[in-house]
Amino acid sequence: MSGFREAALKEMGLAPLWVRRAATAEPDDVQVLPQISEAVSIDGSLHVKTMDWPTLQSVVRDCTACSLCQTRKQTVFGVGRPDAKWMLIGEAPGAEEDAKGEPFVGQAGRLLDNMLASIRLTREQDVFIANVLKCRPPGNRNPAPEEVRQCEPYLLRQIALIQPRMIVVLGRFAAQSLLNTDASIASLRGKVHKVKFGETVIPVVVTYHPAYLLRNLPDKAKAWADLCLARSLIDQLN
Ligand code: URA
Questions:
Q1: What's the pLDDT score for residue 5?
Q2: Is the full-model pTM beyond 0.85?
Q3: Among the atoms of ligand 1, which is closest to the Cα of residue 132?
Q4: Nearest Cα to 195, choosing from 220, 231, 168?
């Protein structure tokens, strides 16, 4: 094990020996992601479905589709490479993300960076990190169904443009939204799901949200097992 990786595991509070081997991948049903409706247009002519990356960025930046635009400081489009093999999806920006315009920049973000480093990834080089919602719900309340409905086309278009080889979903809310299920996080993690987007099938691994892990340290080992599962699948596919 490299010193870098060992240091990242230590930073996560994990000694390598504590960590069980990643769960074996078991095929699941394929969840077909919804098509972006033709009706989702910005000015009657510009459809989210056909937007290129720069257009999508500027449309998200100026979005007023739901009332969150009245309370946000700025939108949080996402960070990383638009051609990344890995896409990470969280719930919604918090106060620090709202202030900085970047996802996962607080304490949970530092843990996320260490989790990434433990499987030899960095946010700058290897991944694109996005959220289900691009704006902060006030007081960090749960996203409302209408807010998710309005924001979903942006995430779907990000997935379509990035075409990631692997999606890692962080936390119950994002997992339930993407996989369209009410199942618990405990039942969703530890296996490989699949989403179908057009003709493309993308593997999805669900794991705990870093903010939850900061409060529940023993579950870090399970999160590392989930990341190892995703890493081994990507390595097999290459
Ligand atoms: N939690 C999330 O789900 N996303 C962020 O960007 C920050 C905290």
A1: 59
A2: yes
A3: 3
A4: 168
